[in-house]
Write a structure and sequence with these properties.
Length: about 150
């Protein structure tokens, strides 16, 4: 359910009370969608399949490839990232401070259960333009050997 701020210039009492309510909800539930802004620390993921394997795309802008950690345990792939939180810099020339700060990509973790036909030894990952691409190639299926039997 999307909540929308109540803006009616004729009723200043209701307008200010609704705005206070939304600001309180923002501080109480920072991972929910209030105030027309969505806060979420878990990046969006696309999973594609073709005949050669699977491709996982993780939308994680603002990170570096060194921030990511991928691990495979049994048939579970865990993708995580950790970034140091940015702090405000105070210098003689720069006296700015945030009145609202919504960039919050400090860390996340996603775990995927892989199908049995994924070759865990050949998983690869690349990061470009804010998207982490994880390639999950399928195992080559062992085809039964065709054996001709001579009729005696």
């Amino acid at each position: 359910m999307q909540l929308v701020r109540f803006n009616q210039p004729n009723n200043k009492f209701l307008n200010s009370n609704f705005n206070q309510l939304f600001n309180q909800l923002d501080t109480m539930f920072p991972s929910k969608s209030f105030n027309n802004v969505t806060y979420n620390n878990i990046p969006a993921v696309n999973v594609k399949e073709n005949e050669n394997g699977f491709q996982i795309e993780v939308a994680a802008p603002g990170l570096k490839k060194e921030d990511f950690k991928l691990s495979l345990h049994e048939n579970r792939l865990t993708i995580s990232a950790k970034q140091e939180a940015k702090t405000e810099e105070k210098t003689e020339e720069k006296t700015e401070k945030y009145t609202r700060q919504e960039f919050n990509y400090t860390s996340f973790q996603r775990t995927f259960t892989l199908p049995k036909n994924v070759d865990g030894d050949k998983i690869d990952a690349t990061y470009s333009e804010g998207i982490l691409h994880v390639g999950l190639p399928k195992k080559e299926e062992l085809k039964p050997a065709v054996k001709e039997i001579a009729v005696a």
